[in-house]
Design a protein that fits this description.
- The chain has about 240 residues and is α+β, with helices and mostly antiparallel strands.
- The protein has 2 domains: about 5-110, Homeodomain-like (Arc Repressor Mutant, subunit A, Orthogonal Bundle); about 120-240, Carboxypeptidase-like, regulatory domain (Immunoglobulin-like).
- It is built from 9 helices and 7 strands.
- A 4-stranded antiparallel sheet has the order 3-2-5-6, with helices on one face. A 3-stranded mixed sheet has the order 4-1-7, with no helix packed on it.
- The longest helix is centred in the N-terminal third of the chain and has 19 residues, at about 50-65.
- Residues about 110-125, about 155 and about 240-244 have low confidence and may be disordered.
Length: about 240
């Protein structure tokens, strides 16, 4: 990754709780805001504001799971002056409200991942399985995958899984009936130009009890178009957030 963009990534991690602007990002990179924004997208596949959103949501998720602070306090700690704005954004990105996410966490992380609304029952689930394909040779890099509904009606939660390396068979279980997409991200080395590769498969129909087999091809993110941008932001930032 270019040094200027590393400065911005570090600045976002250190200052995510503040009121960061495009001008601030430019100062971090010592570049004009427009030039910095173009380079940041080329290097990461994300806009600076999208990466900031991902960092804030990941920090909020961790605080909800690991502390007893109020949701209002957590909203403030991750940079939101409005509790309503934080709740709305968290719900859209994660798939459930902050309060529901915290309540479900007491039942285990797998329960958090599989919740899809009060009306959803176990017999409606199917699953998606497959392998990732990549041409950069980094076959031992972990891959993060997320399935999410093409239609957000019903506020179904995103399902996620982590493949230990790119050759492993992965499986995303507990997917409700409907039309779904799969998106994937992994770290790569691209001569300093990119630090992630991304992929997408679908849409495909999930029926009760069905197992859909798909392969996801990982490529540079320049032409990647997420079906649901807010949810994709978190997934695309995962390698940076988890230090993988």
């Amino acid at each position: 990754m270019r040094t200027e963009i590393e400065w911005v990534v570090q600045g976002i991690h250190e200052g995510f709780d503040g009121n960061l602007s495009i001008a601030d990002f430019g100062r971090m990179a010592r570049l004009s805001p427009c030039h910095m924004a173009r380079l940041f997208h080329q290097e990461t596949g994300l806009t600076p504001s999208g990466f900031l959103l991902a960092v804030r949501m990941e920090q909020a998720r961790r605080k909800l799971l690991r502390s007893e602070r109020s949701i209002a306090d957590i909203a403030d700690e991750v940079g939101y002056a409005s509790l309503g704005a934080f709740t709305s954004r968290f719900t859209k990105v994660v798939g459930v409200s902050p309060g529901k996410y915290r309540r479900l966490s007491s039942l285990g992380s797998s329960i958090v991942d599989m919740v899809a609304g009060a009306e959803t029952t176990h017999f409606t689930y199917g699953s998606v399985t497959g392998r990732t394909r990549r041409g950069d040779g980094l076959l031992r890099e972990p891959v993060y995958l997320a399935a999410f509904p093409v239609s957000l009606n019903g506020h179904k939660a995103t399902r996620c899984c982590r493949s230990g390396n790119s050759t492993d068979l992965w499986n995303i279980a507990h997917i409700p009936s409907g039309m779904w997409m799969v998106e994937a991200v992994s770290r790569t080395v691209g001569g300093g130009r990119y630090d992630v590769v991304v992929g997408q498969a679908g849409p495909f129909q999930i029926d009760p009890g069905s197992v859909v087999n798909v392969d996801v091809i990982l490529t540079a993110p320049t032409k990647f178009r997420a079906v649901e941008a807010d949810r994709a932001q978190l997934g695309l930032a995962v390698p940076n957030l988890f230090g993988c």
